[in-house]
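Write out the 3D structure for:
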Amino acid sequence: MQDKRIPLRKCVSCNNMFEKNRLFRIVKSENGICLDNTYKMQGRGAYVCKNKECIDMAIKKKAFNRSLKQAIPNEVLDSLYMELENDR
């Protein structure tokens, strides 16, 4: 029997590596930028830790903008904070 390994991803804020299911994924696709709860949407993704400090720091240092090469809409940031509250 083979272990199914979970891929590691780097947080855009703290630059630490985590299993991808321990991070939020924001994806830029042809439909725009949105929060990807399935981790399977097509498009360029940016990962951030599931804690308020990392999210705040990523916004402050514009890490999402740099990773996705586009500004993040406020609606996406709002949904990220709501998802953070629901995840607790």
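The chain has a mean pLDDT of 92.
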